[in-house]
Amino acid sequence: MGENKLTDMRIRAWIRAGERFEGRSDGGGLYLRYRAADAVPVWRFRYRFGGVPRVVILGDYGSLSLSDARKEARRMAARVLLGIDPAGEKKERKREAVAKIKAERLRVTVGQLADDYFERMVLGRWKHPNIVRARIEKDIKPNMGRLFVEDVKPAHVDEMLQAVLKRGAPTVANDVLRWIRRMFDYAVKRHMIPYNPAAAFDLSDAGGKEESRDRALSRDELVSLFDAMRRAQGFSVENLHTVKLLLLLAVRKGELIAAPLSEFNLDGGVWALPGERTKTGLPVDIPLSHAAVAALRELVRLGCGSEWLLPSRKAQTRMLPHIHENTLNVALSKVKKLLPDMPNFTVHDFRRTARTHLAALGVDPHIAERCLNHKIRGVEGVYNRHDYFEERRQALQLWAGFLEACEAGKDFNVVPLRPAAA
Fold it and tell me: Are 268 and 286 in contact (CB under 8 A)?
């Protein structure tokens, strides 16, 4: 080794003496630098590429010995002879590493996507945003919320839909598919993903085509329903009063379960349902029968001071102050087990049941329609703004008497308000 070659002894002597220098050559393009700002000497490899001087830092003397530095310098020199630019290669690796770190920082989970979509595209635009929020919290997040958006495959979508179907909720599966497709379309538009992993799915992959229902419970079926609700194990008294109210008032499930007590005037026998919580967007005063007031007072008592008619019962509904929309469905499944010979029915069928029996009791069609808070159709609906409050009170009181007879298993004999249509 020539005198201009470096040795460990000389390097350690320079370090002890604190001797600083810009560069001392070991030959073959290998240099050692020890500037005032350097904590330890630094190895550098100098070369020319395309006629341009280039420098690559190999490491410091503390982590790379003289012997290893020489090996690395020879490897670099060989790459230069092959037409490879080590400095450019190192710069590209650094750029890729920085880009990867940045990409990792910007990665979005399906849960985050769902929250962002809800805030930007649903809240303030849709009349009933809680329905969408329920699908996000109950179905989308539990099944794929932790997955990164770009990692979602069609198999994940299918697995989620099958999980919903397995619990016997085909209509919910259809809703989940509709919303997840919209969410991933939203992600595509914002360059999060190149394609929608749910795009190939249609309703046949979820709950199937939803046919218009015509199910209404007969008088005998109502008698059996009340009897089964009393006998069903685990079917609470709160659920019993809730089902009775849905039948008595012929309101939509979502309107009742999300009702604050402030909307009710029990002494006056009126429920002032605001427009923002109705399907029509119009407020309506609902007359309360004696039986409805009694059921409401019992629910208030059972609520133990809550400001909600049906306060949340379990921790899993922490995002909602009232019971979840699926609570009653689950509870009724226990009742249906005691009614194996009865054709299937859903909570949505209670309104049709009320409408059917109101007609049989002789209630005029336009009064019965207003009892369900349906708009009056045609020209009459445009010019007739009368709310028929007293007529509705009379009709719902008659309907309450019929239901009380069903609950008691007795016949209900009454002179109809008008002759029932043949």
Answer: no
